[in-house]
Specification:
14 helices; six-stranded mixed β-sheet; 6 strands; 286 residues
């Protein structure tokens, strides 16, 4: 009997874990309960896309809130200058220090072909930021930003725009991931001429358009070719944990609209589960 009860308990725990991971397909979530006087909203963005049009549900949620909070305070006038300082590798490191001579020549030809810039002009940039320069090429259209679209609405509503983390905190993410790991993604892009990146982005955008945040989470976990997978704790989980107390503070003061990358929403340490663990009701708002 004891063995049967133990087995049953494990089955129940396993079932509850599976149930807990199931999230509706939605990018917009309402945060309520736990003493909040009014609801706040959590929206999963994709930072660069072909069409950043905000739908009616998002606009309604923004009308019902009085503050916009993004990952960073993008209204900060010192943001651009601060970002420039964080783009470069420390201790005089350059791309040549990270790759063989053969791979350096491959990268050099690649940057010239794709963006018309010699690698020498980019050689002390962190590899992640060089990779980011190819994003418009991978996307294949003039890029738009959901963050900019959200800020436009907030400004029209004469609302402040604040951030969940400081610029230093965000830039430290790219400092805490070894340059040797960052260069792997860049080299792969160069060697297959962005083919893998295009296919991966296509799949991710399909999941995003389907509002399948769990599918996005699974894709990130399973894609062993991405630095995001290897360094998930640094890029996603740890940041999510740090955001919860800030979301609580903002939401207690006034109804707030949060816009963060959709990859932060789902998963064991996703913002939705962490908020629920903290006692809040978080439900799809589409």
């Amino acid at each position: 009997m004891k063995k049967i009860l133990c087995s049953l308990a494990l089955l129940i725990i396993g079932f509850n874990v599976v149930q807990a991971q199931k999230l509706e397909k939605s990018l917009l979530w309402e945060i309520s309960g736990n003493g909040l006087e009014k609801s706040s909203y959590l929206y999963g963005t994709i930072h660069m896309t072909c069409d950043a049009t905000l739908d009616e549900d998002i606009l309604k949620a923004m009308q019902n809130t009085t503050l916009l909070v993004l990952e960073l305070d993008m209204d900060d006038p010192t943001l651009q200058a601060g970002m420039m300082k964080g783009l470069y590798m420390k201790d005089g490191k350059t791309i040549k220090d990270l790759v063989s001579e053969e791979d350096y020549l491959t990268l050099s030809a690649f940057t010239m072909e794709q963006i018309g810039m010699p690698l020498e002009a980019l050689s002390n940039l962190k590899p992640f930021f060089i990779s980011a320069m190819f994003y418009p090429k991978i996307l294949g259209c003039p890029t738009q930003s959901y963050e900019e679209a959200l800020m436009k609405v907030a400004h029209e509503q004469k609302e402040d725009v604040l951030g969940l983390e400081t610029l230093k905190e965000q830039m430290d993410v790219f400092e805490n991931i070894p340059y040797k790991d960052q260069i792997i993604d860049l080299l792969r892009s160069a060697k297959d001429n962005l083919a893998y990146d295009r296919e991966t982005l296509k799949k991710m955008l399909e999941l995003y358009d389907a509002e399948d945040i769990e599918g996005m989470d699974i894709m990130i976990k399973e894609d062993k070719n991405l630095s995001t997978t290897k360094h998930r704790a640094i890029m996603l989980d740890n940041r999510n944990k740090n955001w919860i107390s800030k979301i609580e503070d903002f939401s207690k003061k006034q109804p707030t609209f949060y816009g963060v990358g959709a990859a932060h929403l789902a998963g064991e340490y996703g913002v939705i589960k962490l908020l629920r663990d903290a006692g809040y009701t978080v439900k799809a708002a589409h």
